[in-house]
Amino acid sequence: MLFLFGLLISLFCGLLIFGIFVDYNRLIRLVYLIGSLVSLKLVLFITFFILGFDYFIGFFVSGINFKLDLLRVSLEYNLNGLSMLLVLLTIFLWVICVLVAWSVKYYFNYLQVILALINFLLVQVFLVSDFLFFYIFFEALLLPMVVLIGV
Questions:
Q1: What is the pTM of this model?
Q2: DSSP states along 70-81
Q3: Which conformational region is residue 99 in: left (phi greater than 0), alpha (psi within -120 to 50 degrees), or beta?
């Protein structure tokens, strides 16, 4: 489970770095579309094959807990039916945003970086089980949202 979650995080981080440093618009459009579809497929795989459909429908309170220790900071994630529904909705809406923004002519790579960052932070908000990190990720989510609305 931790391997698949790490794969999803590395996909988001790779897309962020790729969108910042590459300036070829057709390649960026294709990579972001493929990346969003791969992340949707990964979340669907986690939801229906690892958690199981019975687990997904029936158990919204208890879930799978796993811990990620990075640089003396311990992040605890809770993966239950409700959080997976919200993550699935987030990834699905990201795919729709990539498809809708396909016709944007100016600053497409910055738009995709902001959308990927918003998506990454929303997934973190929905999966983290500590209130302090929930607050940190939620407040970090507001900055790219303001940039997306204001610019």
A1: 0.75
A2: ETTEEEEEEE-H
A3: alpha
